Amino acid sequence: MFFMRQKYQARKLGAREILFHFKILFLLHFFIVKGRAICTVNERGENMKVLNIEDTNKDLEPFEKNYLPGMFLFHQGFPAETFFIVLKGTVELVSEQDDKIIVVTYVGPGSCLGERLLVETGLYPRAFGARALTEVKCIEIRKDILNNLHLSSPRSLVQILSTSLEVCINRLARMNSLISHLRSFSSRNRLLYLILFFYNNHGRFLPQGKEVVLQEDMIRFYIDVPRIEIQKMLLNLQTKKIIKKTRDSIYLITNEAALRDLISNSQPESDYTFPWELTAA
To answer: What does the pLDDT average to over 157-171?
Structure first.
């Protein structure tokens, strides 16, 4: 009887845990799908819903903060003490090296910065700096407040977790698809795929096209290609008028179709897919 009772209690505990997880999933679904959302534009120019914490939860209004162009949200190497969700505007992630600031990529509405604070027990150094390119409005919450948010505002915590989870899932999907395309034996193809990946996921819309960061060190972080080969390829794309250099390491891609044609003409059409353009289900 003792063992049967212990087994029964274990089963009851399991059922409670399952019920708890179902409640969490329901809340996540409610806030992501049923909650009010703003509409932004994704890399392909299509409408994409992003959770609008500003509208769905007034409890987070005290944590809203505005940055003017050129202002830093945080600096590289400094301890990460705050978590950010960008609501409006464009933020540059920058590498700060010997008084030289190099733009690495752009992030926009719906993006999270410092999400490691949600799981880290202590502080960690920022890998990059973050600087406002345009006027930026964001949610900024300190770690100590995050730690107690489950008591003061459970709804806010659920919204933050659901937003962070959605961002991380999409990042993982993009990285998985990029890895699959970087398996090519051709350095040329790998570089073209990488440029298209930056175009689709990290580009900044301008009237003339889309601006992307194509820094040599960043490219070499993804693919092991000699610098001279990268320089020749970028120069070749400029000659073909597919990209145009606007400033140091910043290029304007004016002809996306021509860039795709270069890739499709280098392999059978049946193998020509771009799964990173698909959003995670």
So the answer is: 82
